[in-house]
Amino acid sequence: MLDLFQIGDVGEGTIDENCGGLAPVVKIVKFGVFPIVQIGIPILLIVYGTIDLGKAVISSDEKEVKQAQSRLIKRCIYAAAIFFITTIVTLIMTLVGTGADPTETDTNSWANCWNTLER
User: Domain boundaries in the chain?
Assistant: First the structure.
């Protein structure tokens, strides 16, 4: 069975062997991209929503304040959804990575690479 990280397969045991030479790429995604998506984007959405609401309050226009409030609420919902995207993606990929045969002990699968990788 072909796995995602079989490139450069050298055997069983260590992290580099589990990742098949793609450990640096997986590290960048797991410890660089995912935290930015999970933490940075929601914070930016909430900050921009707060700034919009502040501008609307300063302008003293009730209609604009209500629009800014609805935008802030939508941005908070989007921020919560984006926060959980990485968890949902990891869960789905783990379920897909286990395969159809639960008794299969393939140490070179990408799930082993993802789960054993440390900073």
Answer: 36-98
